[in-house]
Amino acid sequence: MKQVICSIATTEKQISACYPLMYQLRPNLAHSEFIARVLHQQKYGYQLLQAICGKTISGVAGFSIGHKLAWGKHMYVDDLITDTEQRSMGIGAVMLKWLENNALQQGCGQLHLDSGVQRFAAHKFYLREGFEISSHHFAKSLCSIE
Ligand SMILES: CC(C)(COP(=O)(O)OP(=O)(O)OC[C@H]1O[C@@H](n2cnc3c(N)ncnc32)[C@H](O)[C@@H]1OP(=O)(O)O)[C@@H](O)C(=O)NCCC(=O)NCCS
């Protein structure tokens, strides 16, 4: 595997460059909406990690630092994806290690994420990387019926 360099995409140009990868995970998100939402979420602590292999963005992950009575100071990871053509090369593991180190540097005691029940391969990956399945996640749509 080529060297993987992880960094935070901060500018609109850098965020835009992450779109083709994020589109693989969130195909319902249009390019302009993706940029607007990342810029908005950044105001509330969201950060976008990019994993660069050579000149290519090979993986992205969103994350934020939060505080909860249950978890204390923690990092929450969402939107983790490796380019479909570059899976099983260790890029996901490099991103998770970077996130774990960053969480530790910021004084977080825990790393959390949700993964859709259908994502069996991702579950295998998280279990391999030392995660435990610690809860069931419940969600209720609040969209009004017209
Ligand atoms: C889960 C994911 C981020 C792992 O990234 P990665 O760069 O392939 O990770 P690594 O190379 O470090 O580890 C690969 C392991 O992940 C697992 N894996 C999960 N999905 C996989 C896929 N589609 N193809 C290959 N391996 C996959 C396997 O256990 C694999 O181990 P193996 O290579 O020994 O079979 C990546 O597969 C992915 O983007 N999946 C689709 C999006 C997704 O489900 N994201 C998680 C949302 S919660």
Number of helices in the DSSP assignment: 5
Spatial strand sequence of the major β-sheet: 1-2-3-4-5
CATH superfamily: Gcn5-related N-acetyltransferase (GNAT)
**Into which percent range does the helicity of residues fall?**
25-40%
Low-confidence regions: none
Estimate nothing, just give the exact number of structural domains: 1
Give me the secondary-structure category: alpha+beta
Mean pLDDT: 96
Percent of residues in β-strands: 25-35%
Annotated CATH architecture: 3-Layer(aba) Sandwich
Work out the radius of gyration.
16 Å
Distance between the termini: 51 Å
| CATH hierarchy, class | Alpha Beta
One letter per element, helices H and strands E, the order comes to EHHHEEEHEH
Reported by name, the CATH topology is Aminopeptidase
Question: What's a concise summary of this model?
Answer:
The chain is of the alpha+beta class and 146 residues long.
What does it look like?
There is one protein chain. This protein has one domain: Gcn5-related N-acetyltransferase (GNAT) (Aminopeptidase). Helix content is 34%, strand content 28%. It is built from five helices and five strands; from the N terminus they run βαααβββαβα. It has helices at 12-17, 19-25, 31-42, 91-105, 120-128, and strands spanning 4-9, 47-53, 56-68, 72-82, 110-113. The chain has a five-stranded mixed β-sheet with strand order 1-2-3-4-5, sandwiched between helices. The longest helix is centred in the C-terminal third of the chain and has 15 residues, at 91-105. The relative contact order is 0.14. The model has no long low-confidence stretch (mean pLDDT 96). Bound molecules: coenzyme A. The site of coenzyme A has 18 residues, from strand 4, helix 4 and helix 5.
